[in-house]
Amino acid sequence: MKKIILLLISVLFVSMAFSQVEVKNKKLPSLELKDLNGKIVNLNKYAENEKITVISVWATWCAPCIKEITNINEILDDWYDEYDMEFVIISIDNSRNAMKVKPFVNGKGWDFDALLDVNSDTKRALNYSNPPFTLLVNKDGEIVYRHTGYVEGDEYNLEEEIIKISK
Prior knowledge:
With 167 residues, the protein is an alpha+beta fold. Helix content is 38%, strand content 27%.
């Protein structure tokens, strides 16, 4: 009996970890992060540009994060052609590992905005536990979708959410 209860609890926690949540009317926080060249960028600028914005929180040590961003990158040009949108990644590598992010991004050929969050400010402001963590922000700057975790094909579920708000 104890094994069954533990199994059920484990399944519950795993399903929560990979959950998708639709969120209504929450704006991006005002957080100052640095881009890969050291320039300070306020995160809420992506809420003010009247574009659909996908934000992926990741780390160089997170294999599912890298897979998610790589898979999105492969179809990103199609998304740019079909939707008025942009894609932004935020690395949560700590200050000791942050110097690895720029060469990593350049080595992957990722050509989109990349920000650094060495103090975990986004984690506190957006209330997520671990990467990968993906946000979808509508043209009004409201967070309309949150997703934690990555399973192959999640990028197509994300595109379905983009389609919903692009109409």
